[in-house]
Structures are given as structure tokens and as C-alpha cells.
Amino acid sequence: MKAEGGGVILAIATWAAVMLICLIDWFKGNTQVALQQLPQTPFNVILVVSLFLLFILGFLLHGDTFNKRYRRARNNLGFWMAGIATAALSTIFYFGLVGILGIIIVTQLPRFYSLKVAIIIGCFLPAIWGLINYFVTGLPYVFDNVILLGLFNSFAILSSHSFINEQAEKLKSQQLVRELKATQLLLSNTSKRDERLRVARDLHDSLGHNLTALSLQLEVASHQELNLIKPHILQAKSIANRLLSDVRKTVSDIRDNQDFQLDQALLLLTQDIPNLPVKLDLNFDTNQLNIRLATVIFRCVQEAITNVLKHANATECLVSMTLTHKELLLRISDTGQSTHNIHFGNGLHGMVERVQQIDGSLSVENLSTGCHLTIIFPWSGH
What we know:
Layout: H1 2-28, H2 42-62, H3 72-90, H4 95-106, H5 115-137, H6 142-221, H7 230-256, H8 262-270, E1 278-282, H9 291-312, E2 317-323, E3 327-334, H10 346-357, E4 361-367, E5 370-378
Parallel strand pairs: 1-2
Antiparallel strand pairs: 2-3, 3-5, 4-5
Helix pairs in contact: 1-4, 2-3, 3-4, 3-5, 4-5, 4-6, 5-6, 6-7, 6-8, 6-9, 8-9, 9-10
């Protein structure tokens, strides 16, 4: 999210420039910028600087710059802090200059409100600030500035809305690419295993049966009275038995070598997700799993991560699998703080159906510390 980080730096730089211009012109006595409503006493200097600091603190809280969960209560608090600071500063300094600070905070509105609501707020704020400024200072052209700032706020909100939607689509596209790569890996492993099984069946049905028949024929020949050829027949019988043993061993090795690489598929699925570090904790070799169980696990993790990205506002996620002699435990936990009841939509219902088809069970626990999804599969050494 380099663009977003650059926007925060630019906003802070703009705030610093406005503050410096206002303070310098205030001390110089420039009435074009400083309206001279306050004398330059130590108390008033501290008051003005505090208002500027209140604004930037409100901006950082409003955008959750240091916490990407976007909690509505904290966002609203930051918004009102910045708004009150801007309204107060507009009675001390030139409204058109201080109004630039208002533009900084309204660009964040599309993150929390619909486009229509954001534009209404963006136009409403300059009107409130303008009225306060007019009644306190009585200066002309305030309402001209209100109209211009309202229009500029609307333009800034539309641009911000387009940027936010573009970023959301980009993140969605990146997640789909990760899921596609992981699915391709799983399908490739499935195809390889199916090919091994086909070869194993062909070996067993053709060579295995033919060699068994050869061994039986040689067994019959070994009981004949032809003493001169009997040693050769016995040797041929021994060779045939070894060949049959080798074929059986090859078939067994091919069947046992499943090589699903579920761990690699899960790694592809969970790595490099923006704003959501995912830790993968597996305490066993996933090649022990059959293809059906491996596929269900993959789909469950895929759906769970999608839900975390959509609804949880979490800062991290843990995917862990533990295997015992009786059960396989899959647990997906996130740090999203919510006490709302879990609503089972199509994704969770589909997950439950997949799990139940192989006699597993699924439970969801939503706490203030995060959501915990637990899936238990029976295990008897698949």
C-alpha cells in the first residue's frame, strides 16, 4: 500500500505547511492570513499550536494510520477532533487557507460512508465552518469560499472514492491470483497421483497377471521327468518369482507416493496478503492425507481467509493443523475484535457441507479478541 502511505505523508506535509504559513504571518502581523482576533500572548500561541496538533491527531485517528482496522467509533472521534480544530482555526486565520485542512480529512470519508453520504458531509462541513467564521469575523467573501471548498471537497471525495475502489479491486485480484496458483498446484498434484494409480493398475493387470501365469506354468514343468531341463526350469521359476515381487513392490510404491503438496498449496494461498500477515503452523507431513481430505482442508482455509479479509478487520491470522492418532484439528484464528453473532452465509454453509461429507465437524467462536474457526476430522491413518 505504498500509494496510501504516500498520501499520509503528503497530508502531514500539507498540514505542516499550512501551520507554518499561518503562524509566521500571525507573528508578522499579515492581516491577509491572520485575522488578528487573538493577541500574540504565550497562552494564545499555545492555544493555536494545540488546535493544529488536535487536527493532525484527529486526522491520524480518523484514517487509523497506525491501525488498519477502521473501527467506526475511533474514526468518528478523529473526524470530529479534526473538524472542531478546523472550525476554531478558521476564526483565527483566513478561511480559504484553513479550509485546505478540511479537504485533507474529507478525502477519508469514502472509507467509512457511501459516496452520497460522503459528498453530503463534504459539502456540509464548509457551510458550518463558513457560518462560524462569518458570525465571528464578519468578513466578506466567506460564502464564496464555502461554495468553492464544497465543490473542491466533492471533487476530492470522488477521486478518493475511485482510488479506494481501485485498491479494493487490486487486492481482490491479487487474492484471486493466489487462490488460482494454489488451486493449480493442488490440481497438478491430483493429476500426478491419478496417473500413478493408472500406471499401477496397468502394471498389476498386465505384467502381474502374466508373470503369475508364467510362474504356474514353470511350476508344472518342474514336476516333469525331464531331468536335463529341470535345473533351468527351476532357475526360470526363481526369476519369475523375483519379477513378480518387483512388480508388486513397484505398484505399492506408486500407490503410497501421493505427493499432494498440500503444505505448498496452503503457503501459496496465505503468503503476501496485504495488511493481513498469515502464519501457517503444520506439525506433520501433509502427504499422509488422501486427496479428498486435502481438498476439503484447502477449500476451508481458502473460504476462511476470504471471510477474514471481508469482515474481520484483523491485523493477523493463524492457520494451524494438528494431527493425533484419533483426529485432525484445523484451526483458523484472527485478531479481528467483534462481539457480533456470526452469520452463516453461502461460504460458511458450503464449508460445513464439505466438512460433514467426510464426517467432520465445524464450530465458530466469535470473541472480543478475535474469531476462532475450528474443524475436526476423524483420523485413522488415511
